[in-house]
Amino acid sequence: MKSSVEKHIETISVLQYVLTFLFMGISFTALLFYLMFTSFWIISVLYFLWFFFDCATPEQGGRRSAWVRRWTVWKRLKDYFPVKMIKTAELSPNRNYIFGCHPHGIMCFGPFTNFSTEANNFQQTFPDIRPTLAILSGLFRFPVYRDYLMSIGMCPVSKMSLDYLLSQTGTGNAVMIVIGGAAESLQCVPGEHLLTLRGRKGFVKLALEHGADLVPVYTFGESDLYQQVIFKEGSWMKTLQLHFQKIVGFAPCLFLGRGIFSSESWGLTPFNKPVTTIVGRPIQVPHIPVPSCEEVDKYHRLYIEELQNLFDRHKVSCGLSASQQLTIL
């Protein structure tokens, strides 16, 4: 049993992640522009000069920090839910990998905790494998926030960035892509397992171009951490969400969690429900620099079959009923 102090520390650890995710980028942007009009203007000038000369770094492997990835706060965040990671097969450091992460959820707590931190000892579980979580490229345009994202091993989910990691940094690289993206986050409903995948084939083509093996990853519990208001198709709010997604790259969700210190009140803190990430078996992919549509379709089908099998093999042990179905759109 956890003491009340331990519970409060875990809750605060989770809340800092949520607030960082939502507000760090825009807050530091506003602060640096404000300082431009004060006696501390030199701070902003020096940082923006650094930003200009360092702008290519996110798409060239980034600049991770083992120290940041091992912060104690990530262990506390993991224990809050708790978040677990289960390995189903060994990964050879002589290959590169593309992890397809499902589902997106609201804030990707599972992929972040397991792949961007050492809270669940990724490096011990998969020796000599270097994980990099690929996220929305636009986030790396925010000052200071970009440096923070790189320090925990994140990169832009751009073609240039992924090509670099899979071709210029040797073997043993694992690039994690949340395939469903913003479209899937709008469908996130507790108790449902709905994926946006059938039309998403770019990651398969990328794997073929570089000969990187595909690894399906499913996080049980990711969709249960928030209550989201789902707007009807054709409503003005749904239309606004889709337009915003098209312009900015992500969709604003209207979601609610629990209060900071009380599960009876509403707030931004996610519900503390178990989150279990299952890392599946790698699908061996040949190196085909210019893959045909037929070849992409073939490995896309193999990937969906393996993902479905992964879900069915582990759903009961992760708290679902045997009749629970995975819906792939």
TrEMBL record:
Entries under CDD domains matching the protein: LPLAT_MGAT-like
Top-tier EC class: transferase
Pathway connected to this protein: Glycerolipid metabolism; triacylglycerol biosynthesis
GO terms under biological process: glycerol metabolic process; triglyceride biosynthetic process
UniProt EC number: 2.3.1.-
InterPro entries xref list: DAGAT
Major location category of this protein: endoplasmic reticulum
Keywords, comma-separated and alphabetical: Acyltransferase, Endoplasmic reticulum, Glycerol metabolism, Lipid biosynthesis, Lipid metabolism, Membrane, Transferase, Transmembrane, Transmembrane helix
Top-rank lineage group of the source organism: Eukaryota
Transmembrane segment boundaries: 12-34
Family the entry assigns: Belongs to the diacylglycerol acyltransferase family.
PANTHER family: 2-ACYLGLYCEROL O-ACYLTRANSFERASE 3, DIACYLGLYCEROL O-ACYLTRANSFERASE
UniProt protein name: Acyltransferase
Native source organism of the sequence: Geotrypetes seraphini
